[in-house]
Design goal:
This protein is 58% helix and 5% strand. It is mainly α. Strand 4 and strand 5 form a beta hairpin. Helix 4 packs antiparallel against helix 5 and helix 10 packs across helix 13.
């Protein structure tokens, strides 16, 4: 009996994902790709979660202990914040307030007894200033609580973890906190705080611990110093520019004539956002460098430059900003496989320590100008990729060209050198530096003579 096959059109009626066979096949293919992507992303999430443990593991034990204590302090205060309770100041505040006020009362009493009107005015001015400082301390505590406990906090992940620790010790209910007022003798002895600023008489200073476990001194009003929030306007500006690059490329790809990528426009946008490495960058631009390095909220897809570095398949191939390994020779001791430098064989621990040195403002090897260069090139690359993809070019080709950057640069160098020599130039500009073409004044003169003779030979009429 002849087997009757169902019509393809009838097959499409049940379980179909398209109006026709081709659309059905395309959607089936996309379904498989999306399924693989979802499974792969799940594995990446687990790997990233495990890496967080490894990242914390390379921290010195004193740092881990300090962070653990800080977490307990913040947890207790967070519960008060969630319950909308106004926290009481630590006993250390009440103690120092009493000491300072008693001191001022004694000075005022002595001024009144001696009928010293001038000294009386000085003491009253001190008391008024102290009252303002006490109010300012409460404002600092309120700011800290909003930054760290508010569910809609915009505090950047790029802020100093050490500074967060100091603020936690000063502004949470910390039983170990000690506060003292600077005396005239302290000023004469040249004492300075954590930031190297000379102490000021009668100002309040907290005695707290850094990540080394060493007790340090900080002005009680400086706990939130250098904290900054995410600049969502700048993040949106970058996203909009990225989308515009892609849209412009899509339009250009539909035109008959070829269109060149506007690299000047890209460079201007990046330089305007992040500044230059010549000391002229503003505080806002420096904060944007840290924000774009650490905050996954920037691109709204969970990615960040920090995560990109930790997940880099081969950190040895890192070439953003002409990365120079020799500038970081002291990051780690020699390990297995190393001969002369710690990076002869970059193992997992080396990678973690390298990335921390590149992005962590508290790391002793941290260099903001190096990070600025790396961040600028990373986000420039994303803009270039958006254009490339919009033009419909093969994505793999651009990545291959980037991997072969050194070879391509050599070829580009030789071409520009040859062109400059043909034009009779003794030097030529290549990537911001001047290089000799190999030509000499004599060779240039001979070249000009040969060109003149060749021209005259080709155009005899010119000799008449």
């Amino acid at each position: 009996m002849k087997k009757i096959k169902s019509s393809p059109l009838k097959q499409m009626e049940t379980g179909a994902m398209g109006k026709n066979p081709q659309e059905h096949l395309n959607k089936m293919k996309q379904q498989t790709e999306d399924g693989l992507a979802i499974i792969g992303e799940g594995a990446k999430r687990l790997a990233w979660k495990d890496m967080q443990i490894n990242i914390r593991a390379i921290e010195p034990m004193s740092m881990q202990l300090r962070k653990a204590k800080d977490q307990i302090l913040r947890k207790k205060d967070r519960e008060l914040f969630d319950d909308l309770e106004q926290p009481e100041l630590s006993p250390a505040y009440a103690k120092i307030f009493k000491i300072v006020l008693d001191k001022y009362k004694q000075e005022l009493f002595e001024a009144l007894n001696s009928e010293d009107k001038e000294q009386e005015g000085v003491v009253k001015t001190k008391m008024a200033a102290f009252k303002q400082e006490a109010a300012a301390i409460k404002e600092c505590i309120a700011e800290f609580r909003e930054d760290h406990f508010d569910s809609e906090s915009l505090l950047s992940k790029g802020v100093s973890a050490q500074q967060v620790s100091f603020a936690t010790q000063m502004y949470c209910e910390n039983p170990d906190l000690k506060i003292a007022n600077a005396t005239s003798q302290d000023v004469e002895n040249g004492y300075t705080d954590w930031f190297g600023v000379p102490v000021i008489e009668d100002k309040l200073y907290a005695f707290i611990y850094d990540f080394r476990g060493v007790q340090v001194m900080m002005n009680i009003l400086d706990g939130n110093k250098d904290m900054f929030i995410r600049n969502n306007l700048k993040a949106s500006e970058y996203i909009n520019f990225l989308n515009k690059m892609h849209e412009d490329a899509l339009k250009a790809s539909g035109a008959k004539a070829a269109h060149k990528i506007d690299l000047g426009r890209i460079n201007y946008q990046i330089d305007s956002m992040f500044g230059y490495g010549d000391g002229t960058a503003s505080t806002e631009q420096n904060e944007l460098v840290m924000m774009f390095a650490h905050d996954s909220e920037v691109l709204r897809d969970g990615s960040s430059f920090r995560r990109h570095l930790y997940e880099h398949p081969s950190i040895k191939d890192l070439n953003y900003g002409g990365f120079d390994w020799n500038s970081l020779n002291e990051i780690a001791p020699l390990g297995p496989g190393d001969v002369n430098y710690w990076h002869d064989n970059v193992d997992d621990i080396d990678k973690l320590m390298l990335v921390d040195a590149l992005i962590n403002v508290d790391n002793p090897f941290f260099d903001l100008e190096l990070l600025r260069t790396l961040v600028k090139e990373y986000y420039t690359t994303k803009l270039e990729n958006a254009w490339w993809k919009g033009m419909g070019y093969k994505e793999g080709k651009l990545e291959l060209m980037r991997l072969k950057r050194d070879k391509l640069n050599k070829a580009r160098f030789e071409k520009e050198k040859t062109d400059a020599a043909k034009n009779g130039m003794l030097e030529f500009l290549f990537d911001g530096k001047m290089y000799p073409t190999g030509m000499t004044p004599e060779k240039v003169k001979k070249q000009e003579q040969e060109t003149k003779e060749a021209t005259e030979k080709a155009n005899p009429a010119l000799n008449k």
